[in-house]
Amino acid sequence: MTVEAFGCIKNTIRLRSGRYFDFLAPDPSQFTLADIGGALSKICRFGGQINRFYSVAEHLVECGRQANEDGLPGYVARSVFLHDAHEAFIGDVVKPLKIMFPDFTTLEWRIDAVIEKKFQVDFRLHEETIKEIDRAMLIAERRAFFTPDKVEWFGEKTVRVIHRNFMGWLPETAEMVFRKMCDAFKLNYDE
What we know:
Largest sheet: 2 strands, antiparallel
Number of helices: 8
Strand content: under 5%
CATH topology: Hypothetical protein af1432
Radius of gyration: 16 Å
CATH class: Mainly Alpha
Distance between the termini: 30 Å
CATH architecture: Orthogonal Bundle
Number of domains: 1
CATH superfamily: Hypothetical protein af1432
Structural class: mainly alpha
């Protein structure tokens, strides 16, 4: 189904590189890591419902750091690091909303497939490792960014406790550190 709507060019969005990303037919040639890092550095976690800015880019850097600290092989740590890269194109949709719209997950998988192909990562093969780090990071972020309350989040007590010093970087810093992490993982930022 092709979109015909004001301001749209079929099913695409324009990226900062000048390329167009097609949601129905995504292809690795349509985007760069700079498109991803630049967008993620400006997208706030938790739907923006926190007291200070904390980007998806910083979240991924912290997940990548945790993967390295856990001694994971580079190819696994790269998958952990890029697991939310699709959010550069579709935003950070809060979990309850994703569950309410299961087709959204299908779109995430479609985008993940081209990210996997382009950057030689495998989100499905390393799914359990990614989930383990991502869920522990989520609870660490909750403790850092939300005033404590008596509500227990589902699964909260099942994850390991990790401690991170979340900085809440401004977008420029978040992108710069994201780029450095790409360099550390030998990922070409401008490709």
